[in-house]
Design brief:
Largest sheet of chain A: none
Number of strands of chain B: 19
Distance between the termini of chain A: 36 Å
Oligomer: heterodimer
Number of strands of chain A: 0
Helix content of chain B: 25-40%
Strand order of the largest sheet of chain B: 6-7-8-3-9-10
Distance between the termini of chain B: 43 Å
Number of helices of chain B: 9
Largest sheet of chain B: 6 strands, mixed
Strand content of chain A: under 5%
């Protein structure tokens, strides 16, 4: 290898790693360092405080609602987009990307316009004693909205790549639509789905803007972990903020790791 | 008749894939649908399978109208050009798929799968994944999978199209032998006339969404009813309105009644067979297929003037109205 090629190769690596370090590794590493600067005790206290635990539960609830719904919708929508023809398909395709394009804060505000006390359904909802805005259903809606496109966008290219011959073969062998999906399509797209689920989960865990608008930020009631982190930070409770941020970061990393491990396992079989 | 197609028509947007096609396939036969790409042969096969629905017409399988019967209940085995192997399943699981859908008990599934793997010579590979098999092995697996559910009809869509020439030849004769063993009514689609002639008992030649002619390979070769069939099955020379097979061109050293003067432009030695290319007096081109010994006996040389006589020439009357191209009447001419 010539000196020039070697320089190019290592130069590019150094640049990529340096860029990531500045933007990602150093800040995340700093969270670890700052969190534990006074030892484990204060960190543990912050995480296990009543508000901290509640925020943790709220975040898990958001993930537990948004991710399964997005997964089902995502797979169904991807099948619709790839395997069928209908009028308005291009429109649906464009609408799915809307959450990527629109600022989360705007999403939050628009949800208030529709479901808030003075919104479209507001009167009807109040009459029936249903509260959506400033309560967990509204936060769930916001979380679903912002994490909506991931599964669809991961599954569509996989479906296109595998084609529909395997599905046709299953049908000639007597499989009905559900059996074909369950035994042929789903196993074939499982990595696309898994990746979409991981991205959805990560997005749902970290969502701040839209949830912050619709939640009303009521401590101990409508506060998720990102909101908790923000509040603690603004109240100069640095250890509390960093501790919760650490929990968030660990959860996100665990999700990514779980996928990589299972993917590697798959490759060896 | 095992399969009858009556006046089937199928359009994809503006494109007419099948135009009023009728076809009869005898029970237990091995039939080829032969034609160039876009002739409608694959569409016809998919219509029989129930993977497409005809716009008009009927499909009867074993005497009952199957036009409205969904693909799952037609009892057809289908083999795709690109195998359509279930990639996440082993060879065993692929072949067992249809039987497991039928909820057969485990022992029955196991014995049937092993019986079929034996039939397609994949006994030792039951635990492999499709990605670990060669193309030919994958196609044999696909065939075993289709046969596992004991279909009424076996349909193969260009089954050897994705394989290299050597494997293709092997699988052809193997399919022929397999059919003699299993005796299931089989239809396969191909664009390769040699493949159709070698494997099939009956050939339906398709062109532009219609069946031009159906018959035994010999019938089609010796008594083509249309210009297209004559040109598609075997090589052909065209001199004005005359159609002559290259092996029916006689080469003589001296003029005789019915001969034409010709100059040998090129002689190509292809082993046993020699291809002789001529230019006729009026500038038309012609070629003859002769054996090596004939070529030596006549002492043919490039540039030489000889006399050729087209034997067994045919004239096809063009259809009166091009939109109604029913089988045109054929006149066979014996060159005097």
């Amino acid at each position: 290898m010539s000196a020039r090629a070697r320089l190019g190769k290592y130069g590019l690596r150094t640049f990529a790693l340096g860029y990531l370090a500045l933007l990602l590794l150093i800040p995340v590493g700093m969270i670890f360092a700052r969190t534990f600067q006074d030892g484990v005790g204060p960190v543990w206290d912050a995480i296990t405080s009543a508000d901290g635990l509640h925020a943790f539960q709220m975040t898990l609830l958001m993930v537990a609602i948004a991710v399964p719904l997005n997964t089902i919708f995502g797979i169904g929508c991807a099948l619709l987009l790839v395997r069928t023809r209908f009028r308005g398909k291009a429109l649906l395709n464009a609408l799915i990307d809307l959450p990527f394009a629109v600022s989360p804060v705007v999403i939050g505000l628009s949800l208030i316009l529709v479901y808030g006390a003075t919104g479209w359904f507001g009167g009807w909802l109040t009459d029936n004693g249903i509260q959506i805005i400033f309560s967990w259903p509204g936060m769930a809606l916001a979380t679903i909205f912002v994490s909506l496109p991931f599964v669809v966008r991961e599954v569509v290219p996989v479906l296109q790549e595998i084609g529909d011959e395997q599905e046709q073969a299953a049908k000639t062998l007597g499989a009905n639509a559900w059996q074909t999906f369950r035994r042929v399509t789903l196993p074939a797209i499982r990595w696309g789905v898994a990746y979409g689920v991981v991205l959805s989960t990560a997005r749902a865990l970290g969502e701040f803007g839209a949830v912050s608008v619709v939640s009303g930020k009521i401590t101990g009631q409508t506060e998720t972990l990102p909101l908790f982190v923000s509040r603690e930070f603004h109240n100069f409770n640095i250890v509390g903020a960093y501790a919760a941020a650490l929990v968030l970061a660990v959860m996100a990393l665990a999700t990514l790791l779980a996928m990589n491990v299972s993917k590697r396992k798959e490759a060896t079989t | 008749m095992s399969i009858v197609v009556e006046n089937a028509t199928k359009q994809f947007g503006e494109f007419v894939a099948l135009d009023d096609v009728s076809l009869e396939v005898p029970d237990g036969s091995l039939t080829a649908l032969l034609g160039p790409s876009g002739s409608g042969k694959s569409t016809l096969l998919r219509l029989i399978a129930g993977l497409e629905a005809p716009d008009a017409g009927r499909i009867l399988i074993r005497g009952t109208d199957a036009t409205a019967v969904p693909v799952q209940e037609r009892g057809v085995g289908f083999v795709f050009q690109h195998y359509a192997a279930f990639k996440h399943m082993t060879v065993y699981e692929n072949v067992a798929f249809g039987l497991r859908i039928q909820k057969r008990d485990k022992k029955q599934v196991s014995s049937r799968v092993h019986e079929l793997l034996d039939l397609v010579h994949l006994e030792g590979l039951a635990g492999r994944y499709p990605s670990q098999l060669s193309g030919g092995q994958r196609q044999r697996m696909a065939l075993a999978r289709a046969l596992a559910v004991e279909p009424n009809v076996l349909l193969l869509d260009e089954p050897f199209g994705a394989l290299d020439a050597q494997v293709r030849k092997e699988l052809r004769s193997w399919l022929r032998r397999l059919h003699d063993e299993v005796h299931v009514t089989t239809i396969f689609v191909t664009h390769d006339q040699e493949e159709a002639m070698e494997v099939a008992e009956q050939i339906a030649v398709m062109n532009k969404g219609q069946v031009e002619q159906a018959g035994s390979p010999r019938q089609l070769y010796e008594h083509p009813e249309t210009e297209f069939v004559m040109g598609f099955i075997g090589a052909v020379n065209r001199i004005g309105a005359l159609f002559v097979r290259p092996h029916d061109v006689e080469i003589l050293a001296r003029p005789e009644p019915g001969t034409e003067e010709a100059m040998i432009e090129r002689i190509v030695h292809l082993g046993f067979e020699v291809r002789v290319e001529f230019i006729l007096g009026d500038g038309d081109q012609l070629w003859a297929q002769v054996t090596r010994s004939d070529c030596e006996q006549l002492e043919l040389m490039e540039g030489q003037i000889v006399y050729v006589r087209p034997g067994q020439a045919k004239v096809f009357q063009p259809p009166a109205d091009p939109s109604i191209s029913a089988n045109p009447t054929t006149e066979e001419l014996q060159a005097a």
